[in-house]
Hints:
Largest sheet: 5 strands, parallel
Oligomer: single chain
CATH superfamily: P-loop containing nucleotide triphosphate hydrolases
Number of domains: 1
Structural class: alpha/beta
Helix content: 55-70%
CATH architecture: 3-Layer(aba) Sandwich
Amino acid sequence: MRIVFIGPPGAGKGTQAQKIVERYMIAHLSTGDMLRAARDAKTPLGLKADEFMSRGELVPDDIIIDLIRERLQSPDCRRGYLLDGFPRTIAQAEALDAMLASQNTPLDVVLELQVPEDELFRRLAGRGRADDKPEVIRQRLVAYRTQTEPLLDYYRRKNLLRSVDGVGTVDEIFERIRAILDEFAGA
Length: 187
């Protein structure tokens, strides 16, 4: 099963992604985790990405696409994967489509986790990460609205988009997700 997971910062994608990959035994490809690891390891890619991340800006497409292209070749992706944080833009979605088409491995579903903005801000402000300062949070939410939300229409037109209410307990939200994914898992 090949899944794209979309949702604004603070929607709970990381928490739900862990539950999804455990249940369906697929690889979790979190661009945020990959970028933070590269930054912390001070790799050239990580240092370049950190220039953007520290300002609350999205990392440029070419950096992200190279990171994903390499990662999809890993053996743990053969059973399927959950893309978390990619694609973020139409250009990235088109690059992903081209990459997957060349391998004859199209996406199965795109999950959108929906959470109201006031709830997102409350959740993000409570995390205490260095990139969760109020001004950076605002910038990240603006970047999401302007650059990522157009993906919803893109995937809706391809009949891949399924939306999930992201408010409730972790288990309640996961049950909503599971109800959708079980269709694709043949369960």
